[in-house]
Amino acid sequence: MTAIDPTAHLTAEQIEELGRELDAIRDEVIAGRGEKDAAYIRKVISAQRKLELVSRGVLLFSIFPPAWLIGTAGLSVAKIMDNMEIGHNILHGQWDWMRDPKIHSTTWDWDHVSPAEQWKHSHNELHHTYTNVIGKDNDLGYGIMRVDEDQKWHPFHLGQPLWNFINACFFEYGIAAYDLELGKNLSKRRRKSPEFRARARAVGRKIRKQVLKDYVIHPLLSGPSFPTTLAATFTANLVRNLWTHSVIMCGHFPEGVQVFERRSIRGETRGQWYLRQMMGSANISGSKAMHFMTGNLSHQIEHHLFPDLPSNRYAEVAVKVRALFEKYELDYVTGPLPKQVFSAWHKVFRLSLPNKKPKVKTPKVKTPDREQELVAA
Amino acid sequence: MTSAALRSRAWKMLEMVTTPLLPSDYLDLVSPLRAGADLRGRIEAVHPETSDAATIVIRPGRGWRGHTAGQYVRIGVDVDGVRLWRAYSVTSPTNRQDGRITVTVKAIPDGKVSNHLVRRVKPGTLIQLDQATGDFVLPEAKPAKVLYLTAGSGITPVMGMLRDIEFDDVVMVHSAPQPQDVIFRDDLHALVADKKLRLTELHTDTDGMLDIARLDELVPDWTERETWACGPAGMLDAAEKHWSEHGVQERLHTERFRPSIVVAGDGGEVTFSTTGKTVDADGATPLLDVGEEAGVLMPSGCRMGICFGCVTPLKAGAVRDLRTGEITEAEPGVLIQTCVSAAAGPCDIER
């Protein structure tokens, strides 16, 4: 955590004005949503389904190495598309305005072991409302890592580079456990709560279906290609997990991203909420293909400001948002993928060790009490 | 094992292959009109009828069960990316050889769907369909004498009847503002030329609105006729009163296109229909708070419009988005975010 509040130069009025300017950006996109956007998501869904079909088809012959390579690559991309540009965004309600029951946050399910319903609660509700608030937003380190100096160090954290790597490989299982709040619910009393058991059963059902599909049925359908198809599906899931984990790490973990104290969000205004999203997220720069493959989460800052705007609009929104960052002299954290991934991992390594010197309690980042400031001035 | 059980087992197997999607999600990519798919139709042609009306030729999917003359069909059309459902009378005869159906649409001012269908929709467009429904139909036993009393686009269900069954003695009284506004004018005049129809065409711009008392003069034997009437609410109200005053109300069949009109206001009576609670709400309080205040178990989440954890069906009425001021009216399948929506007039929330 930075000792100096990077938003300290803003007055309460400026923050509210910033909020109004962001609202105007949002309203403009909503007013302009239409046929082209609907056609976009339909095209992406249709392309994903075709790619998955063809890749699985090719894998039926994965005993031949070129077929294995092509099929595995195709399936990896299809799975990434399903999780990122399609699943993540539909489950955010970005496409609910189309009123198409087949492309709706209440009906969509994704190729993932976490049930959509549980993910929507932990991600849309907890993470997006309490972004980067220590103790409220469990996405900060997923409850297994220390990602800020102000979090208490424990010898367990020495292993966090390893935990993070294992989490990256089996990311979808990590997410499922996280959505279940497994750590918190392992106590004997909580384990027995009917509500938790129902949710655990839902995860179990989802895992069974996914595993059966990927590791039993499709390999069996491949006949003599059974082992190679099995390996291909495993590889595709691994690639998808590593990729999504990397992208998501870049969203909130790189250096320069702010975290906030629990107390600081009490009585938060709309402008302050926006400001927290701006300071708590980081982007990835790159080509159109790069943005597409990250599900436009490369525009993490824009996504956190407007989680329900259609993903294909984030690129145009980003130009206006960035101008606001400049106008209000705020730091827009962005960089190419390798740089951001390195930065996030660097933090994971650095914070696996205790803080270098005993920390003097520094004022927390987050719009301090403006009234006091005004009095002081 | 029966073949049905076998098929169902095979389908279950297929579902395991495609999970979490369904086999139909893939089949829809190649054959959206196949048997077993959600009912859809493809627009094959759009024929202008008047300056603001057009007949839409639709090839229905294999699941289409046909219609009875006079019935309507609900169609779901994507307008500016948003799926909107409207009901239109089927204007094609029931025995059309090529299996296509037609609806005839009049563009009403500010009508999103009607203007889209009349002026913009392209052949090849896929639409959603419901099965035909409605009890504005002809009886199985042929009546000896028939009167069709229509105005404006009220002609459409009656045209479906005229094209379907010939009666020995049919009279029609039809009103439209001007001759060029009469939908199916050529068809009607062809029927008159063939002596299959006696037509009184009223042009309200010059003749004034139909005074129901004039019916005695236009159709002297109207009380003996089985009558089907369709048109604006004013005309239907007058007809119902007139028929009932003469004690022949059982001879009159009416069809109303818009049974209720939503008036968007500021606040209103909110009904939580599942719970059976009704409370007054102002136009500024989110419906989530209104429901919780009334003791209704409401799903909730972020309470600021971002998590979509509180979406709930809007069964009737209208709500206003507190962020944008946008009004949403109830339609089948419409879900609202209760945390950022307030009552805009009376409304019914399914909770």
Automatic annotation (TrEMBL), chain A:
InterPro entries: FA_desaturase_dom, Fatty_acid_desaturase. Residues 357-377 are annotated as: Disordered. Its EC number is 1.14.19.-. Residues 366-377 have a biased composition (Basic and acidic residues). It comes from the Bacteria. Residues 67-333 form the Fatty acid desaturase domain. Keywords: Oxidoreductase. It holds the Pfam family FA_desaturase. This is Fatty acid desaturase.
